[in-house]
Each structure stands twice: as structure tokens, then as C-alpha cells.
Write a structure and sequence with these properties.
Layout (H helix, E strand, L loop, with lengths): L35 E13 L4 E12 L3 E7 L4 E8 L2 E2 L1 E5 L2 E10 L4 E10 L4 E3 L2 E8 L2 E5 L19 E10 L3 E4 L2 E8 L2 E12 L6 E4 L2 E6 L5 E5 L4 H8 L2 H12 L7 E5 L8 E3 L2 E4 L10 H10 L8 E2 L6 H17 L5 H13 L18 H18 L1 H14 L4 E2 L1 H8 L8 H8 L16
Parallel strand pairs: 1-12, 18-19, 19-21, 22-23
Antiparallel strand pairs: 1-2, 2-8, 3-7, 4-5, 4-8, 6-7, 9-10, 10-11, 12-15, 13-16, 14-15, 17-18, 20-21
């Protein structure tokens, strides 16, 4: 093939910079790339529901962080690349083992601009890995995206690591009977020849795993317009049941704003699919639930609280490394207990004692601050993370604890954090030494006793 053809070239795919041990994240060593930083993704997508056919043009605006001759993007092999240009010039590339390696026509110095345009198409399907199947998934009528932790490359080329946040414009054209939702604010909608194009602008920085598109035969129910617009998308047959189950999220949002600080995004949407889903799916600005979560016997209240809390803890304030997953899941789990307490059900202290008794009989081989990639989504991480926060609350008191949470979401709004950042910030909210608490709850495997204090507020 001609080097100027723009078609895939042969060659070994390896890290652009550094040695084999110089990886982005040791939990997902194949994800993420070196040598540049993305500031914006502009995605022009077309999706035909019946054949599950996706076409795309991704324009990626980035800045070189070092002198680079080649850049890589994460993209699943189910997507066939037709053409790549960089700064307006057609370039050579290889696309193997989920890496799109692009050879630049001339080196780009550190600080230099990169405008990468990738034309591609394929039949998207989930990426299989240690955590099951993640990414683009077909529904009975429509599709959804469940990217966490490494499913984003199933549908667009990206630098797939949570610290690599960027703004987005997502334009998705699909069959007109279907409603298409993506992250951000809907800025345009137009219909032509049986296809409707929906254009969304996500201005706040977003990690790739939180980028999402939901397509289905949905109707919109407006649950609130102020102070934060809250919508519900559901199939017509589920609309009434969904409203009954998801209506309380308006009160949840008010309660969490009081406890955690201002809601970080322009709006919030709950999507209910016609299909059952084992667990809800988080995305920046919305969450997706299955038809089964409309069942009055389901624990939807807990799940709705959990997914809403992720807008603060995970979506706005995002981990730097996957080992710090407790900063997402422990906080969201504790928010479940806080909502229960605020709504007049069981107190957080009662929930803490309940799950403490359960965890006490669960042997752990890794500490909470580094649970290992195989266990990072295990339930014990969620519950021990929540218990860690409750232990801190008992130790420093309600006033200091909630002031800390509000300080955390304000200081690191739209940013990236690690466990060490939370430890450092907590030290500014109490005169008590917390080193022993952190050591026993975060870095040791044995479950320590809860602080010998009565329930918060008593």
C-alpha cells in the first residue's frame, strides 16, 4: 500500500513514549496514551438501529505534551478506519489490537497543536474484559452506552483514561421514531428524510468513560425546571410507573445540593429503557435504568440516590487512578445512606452497623485504597468506602464532615483527584489527628472498629 494512501500500514504497536513499565494506569495498562492531551472531541455520528450500524467522523483537538512523531488513540477493532488527517494533512496509520497508531508527516514539538480527524464505521459491540462487557450495547429497540471503565473505544477514538478530561460536541443522527440522548445540553435538533439529528454540547470537562449516547422510543417527562432542570425519559408504556419511581429524585437533588454543594452540571436526566438492566449505568449529566427498576418491589430509591450522587463524586470530581475507585463508589454508597436518613427512613448509622456486621465476616486480601483491578467493582469496596466516610463523620462530627464534602466538591470541581488529596483536605477540617483512622480504614485489610461515638447528631 502506498504510504500516502491513508490506509492501515503494518508495524508493531507499542507505547509512543517511555518504557514498557511507563503505563498510564497499572489497573488498565492497555488504556490511555502518552505524548498529548485532548481538550475537545467533536463527534459527528450516524446510527441505523436495525442493522446496528455506526458511522463517525471524530475531530480531536489536542496539544502535544512532548516532542512527538506518532500518536495513538484507543479504538475497538470492530470500528474500521477509512481515513485519518492531522492538521489538515492525510497521514499513515495502523489499527491493531484496539490501538490506532498515527504516524505524523512531521514531528510536533511540545506545546504544538494537533487536530486529528478520524473517519470510521462499523457494527459496535461491547468490549469484553475482566469486568464483563462494557461499551456500546444493543437494546431490543435502540442502544445504550455503558463505558465504565474502558468501553468508550467501542464507539469513538479517544484517549481512554479518566484523567484525560475534555469538552465534547456530540451530533447523533438516527431513525426519526427514536429519541437520542447524549451528554450536555441539546443545542439543535433537525429532521430530514426519516432521520433526526440531535446535537449536544458538553462544556464541562468529561472523562471518556462518562461519554454516552442512549437511543430508544422515549417520551420526555419534565420533573423540574428550577433550580436544576430534571427530566425523565421512558417508553410510553412505562411512563407512569417510571414517574412514580423516579419522581423523588427532585427532592434528592435538593438534599444532595445541601449536603454536597451546588449541582455541577446544567441538567439531570433519568433514562428508563424498555429492557431490564442488571444495574443502572452512570454518565455525566444522566443515568440509565432498566424497566425492572420501575417495579415497586425493586430498590430503585437506593439506586436513584446512588447514581445521582455520582454527578458530584465521580463525574465532576473524578479519580486520577482506578485504584482510587472508593472515591466514587464509597461516596455514592454513603449518599444512599444519607438520603435514607434525610427522608426519614433508616439513619446512616443504622446502615453502617448493618453493613459493618456483613463485612466483618468477609475476608479481604487487599486494602480499600488499592483493591486490585479484579476487585475494584466488588461490593465490599462500595460498602467499606461508605463505612470509611461514616467513621470519619463519627470522628470529626457533622459540621466538619459536611463542610469537608462541600469543600471537596468545590475545590476539585471538574478536576481529577487521588486518595491523598482527600486525606490532605480532611486535615483542614479538624484539629484531631486522623493518621490512624486513614491507616486502618484505607491501607489495612482488617476491618477496624467504628469510632466509639454515638450516632451523628446525637
Amino acid at each position: 500500500m502506498s504510504p500516502k494512501s491513508g490506509r492501515p500500514q503494518s508495524g508493531r504497536v507499542s507505547p509512543v513514549l517511555g518504557s514498557p513499565v511507563d503505563v498510564i494506569d497499572d489497573y488498565l495498562p492497555e488504556s490511555g496514551n502518552l505524548g498529548y492531551r485532548v481538550s475537545r472531541y467533536d463527534l459527528e455520528l450516524g446510527y441505523r438501529v436495525a442493522p446496528n450500524r455506526l458511522t463517525g467522523v471524530a475531530t480531536i483537538t489536542a496539544t502535544a505534551t512532548s516532542h512527538v512523531k506518532q500518536v495513538q488513540l484507543d479504538l475497538a477493532p470492530t470500528m474500521a478506519v477509512a481515513r485519518v488527517t492531522v492538521n489538515g494533512e492525510r497521514v499513515r496509520y495502523t489499527h491493531r489490537r484496539a490501538k490506532l497508531a498515527i504516524t505524523l508527516n512531521r514531528p510536533i514539538p511540545a506545546g504544538g497543536a494537533l487536530s486529528i480527524v478520524v473517519r470510521y464505521a462499523g457494527n459496535p459491540r461491547p468490549i469484553r474484559g475482566a469486568w464483563g462487557e462494557v461499551g456500546w450495547e444493543e437494546l431490543t429497540e435502540g442502544s445504550l452506552c455503558a463505558n465504565q471503565p474502558n468501553g468508550a473505544p467501542s464507539w469513538f477514538p479517544c484517549d481512554d483514561h479518566p484523567v484525560a478530561k475534555a469538552s465534547y460536541r456530540i451530533a447523533i443522527s438516527t431513525d426519526s421514531p427514536f429519541h437520542a440522548l447524549a451528554n450536555g445540553v441539546l443545542t439543535a435538533k433537525r429532521t430530514k428524510a426519516g432521520q433526526t439529528t440531535w446535537v449536544y454540547e458538553q462544556a464541562e470537562p468529561m472523562a471518556t468513560y462518562l461519554a454516552s449516547i442512549q437511543i430508544g422510543r422515549y417520551e420526555t417527562t419534565v420533573l423540574a425546571t428550577q433550580p436544576v432542570p430534571v427530566d425523565l425519559l421512558a417508553p410510553p408504556a412505562l411512563r407512569a410507573a417510571a414517574r412514580a419511581r423516579f419522581g423523588p429524585q427532585v427532592e434528592m437533588l435538593a438534599a444532595f445540593t445541601d449536603m454536597f454543594g451546588p449541582y455541577p452540571f446544567p441538567r439531570y436526566t433519568a433514562v428508563v429503557t424498555d429492557d431490564p438492566l442488571e444495574i443502572p449505568l452512570e454518565a455525566q449529566g444522566f443515568a440509565t435504568f432498566g424497566a425492572n427498576h420501575c417495579d415497586p418491589t425493586s430498590d430503585a430509591q437506593r439506586l436513584v440516590a446512588h447514581e445521582l450522587a455520582h454527578q458530584w463524586f465521580g463525574n465532576s470530581v473524578t479519580l486520577k487512578r482506578w485504584r482510587d475507585i472508593w472515591l466514587h463508589e464509597g461516596f455514592a454508597c454513603y449518599a444512599e445512606w444519607l438520603w435514607s436518613e434525610r427522608s426519614g427512613d433508616q439513619s446512616a448509622h443504622q446502615w453502617a452497623n448493618h453493613y459493618y456486621d456483613k463485612l466483618r465476616s468477609t475476608p479481604m486480601s487487599r486494602p480499600l485504597a488499592d483493591p486490585g483491578p479484579a476487585a475494584m467493582f466488588d461490593d465490599w469496596v462500595y460498602k467499606r468506602g461508605a463505612l470509611t466516610l461514616h467513621a470519619l463523620r463519627l470522628r470529626i462530627g457533622d459540621d466538619a464532615f459536611f463542610a469537608l464534602l462541600r469543600h471537596w466538591t468545590d475545590k476539585y470541581r471538574y478536576g481529577s483527584v487521588g486518595t491523598e488529596d482527600f486525606i490532605a483536605l480532611a486535615s483542614h477540617h479538624t484539629a484531631q489527628p486522623l493518621g490512624e483512622l486513614w491507616q486502618s480504614w484505607l491501607y489495612e485489610t482488617t476491618l477496624p472498629p467504628l469510632p466509639p461515638t454515638g450516632p451523628p447528631g446525637h
